[in-house]
Design goal:
Helix 2 packs across helix 3, helix 3 packs across helix 4 and helix 7 crosses helix 8. Helix 6 links the parallel strand 8 and strand 9. This protein has one domain: NADP-dependent oxidoreductase domain (TIM Barrel, Alpha-Beta Barrel). It starts with a strand and ends in a 5-residue tail after the last helix. It has an 8-stranded parallel beta sheet. A two-stranded antiparallel ribbon has the order 1-2. The chain is globular, with a radius of gyration of 18 Å. The protein is built from 11 helices and 10 strands. By secondary structure, it is an alpha/beta fold. The site of NADP nicotinamide-adenine-dinucleotide phosphate has 27 residues, from helix 9.
């Protein structure tokens, strides 16, 4: 598996498996188990997905040695702040049946993220987390966090797919040695992405599916991708992307379909901040 090296020297697989919206416990355990058997080593979950326990059971059942795995989870908004973060971290670790995390992310930039970051810096220095980072941080928030703290985030996980390519943000993060990680790499299957004529044509040329073209395009850009699927054949398909390489011309054809548009256009609406303050999970 190809890897990227984070700003603290830790290696992270460039392709992983995401488990958002796999709520059924047995299904989640089975899909993570299938993913590990297919060769994935990076698993991306979150306290807010309410499935860390299933992920933990799948990891245990798989018998993959711990040092081969790269496990990410995320701190939800309701647990922002120094003390709450320490408690939330311990709970996540317990649910995952792990004694350390590879990557812990602040899920969304709301609440006392500075208190959270100080707690995460301590946990990182104690060796309980190999790398710490953020998710859904626009560049202004990212810089603000960087300049007011000691540890620079290793990763920023943001929406990145052919219709929201994040070219400027990726360039900026690269300059600051922060790894971009794509969530929603397949645009969550929305906006007819699998029927997009440019992607279909490129797929036909390489004898690959649209999903494989997208994941190859992301990884060739140096973007870590974590596609989700509950279907075993797709889990395997999404992993088989390292036996071909997109040409410069085909990469440019994909660049040209960027709409620079989020699947969730209201995300910078101030009302969203209120909404996130009120989303509480039983975690
Ligand atoms: P995604 O991976 O872009 O797309 C998943 C959708 O694509 C599902 O409907 C899946 O259906 C379908 N799919 C998967 N492989 C396919 C294939 N080869 N051919 C056709 N359809 C395929 O969406 P996502 O789950 O939202 O994003 C991936 C991961 O990113 C998440 O699981 C989560 O770990 C992370 N994430 C993070 C945030 C954040 O705020 N940090 C937000 C969203 C997601 P089936 O399952 O039926 O195959």
């Amino acid at each position: 598996m190809q890897k990227v090296t984070l700003n603290n020297g830790i290696e992270m697989p460039i392709l992983g498996f995401g488990v958002y919206q796999i709520e059924d416990e047995n299904q989640c355990e089975q899909t993570v188990y299938d993913a590990l058997k297919a060769g994935y080593r990076l698993i991306d979950t979150a306290a807010a997905y309410m499935n860390e326990e299933s992920v933990g059971r799948a990891i245990k059942r798989s018998d993959v040695p711990r040092e081969e795995l790269f496990i990410t989870t995320k701190l939800w908004v309701q647990d922002a702040g120094y003390e709450s973060t320490k408690k939330a971290f311990e709970k996540s670790l317990e649910r995952l049946q792990l004694d350390y995390l590879d990557l812990y992310l602040i899920h969304r930039p709301f609440g006392d993220v500075y208190g959270s970051w100080r707690a995460m810096e301590e946990l990182y220095r104690e060796g309980k987390i190999k790398a710490i980072g953020v998710s859904n941080f626009e560049m202004d928030r990212l810089v603000d966090l960087m300049v007011h703290n000691e540890v620079i985030p290793a990763v920023n996980q943001i929406e990145t797919h052919p219709f929201c390519q994040q070219i400027e943000s990726a360039k900026y993060m690269k300059e600051h040695n922060i790894q971009i990680e794509s969530w929603g790499p397949l645009a969550e299957g929305k906006n007819n992405i699998f029927q997009n004529e440019v992607l279909v044509a490129i797929g036909e040329k390489y004898n690959k599916s649209v999903a494989q073209v997208i994941l190859r395009w992301l990884t060739q850009r140096g973007v870590v991708a974590i596609p989700k699927s509950v279907r075993k054949e797709r889990i395997i398909e999404n992993f088989n992307i390292f036996d071909f390489e997109l040409s410069k011309e085909d990469l440019e054809r994909i660049t040209a379909i960027d709409k620079k548009q989020s699947l969730y256009p209201t995300k910078r609406d101030p009302e969203e901040a209120k909404r996130y303050a009120n989303i509480k999970f039983d975690i």
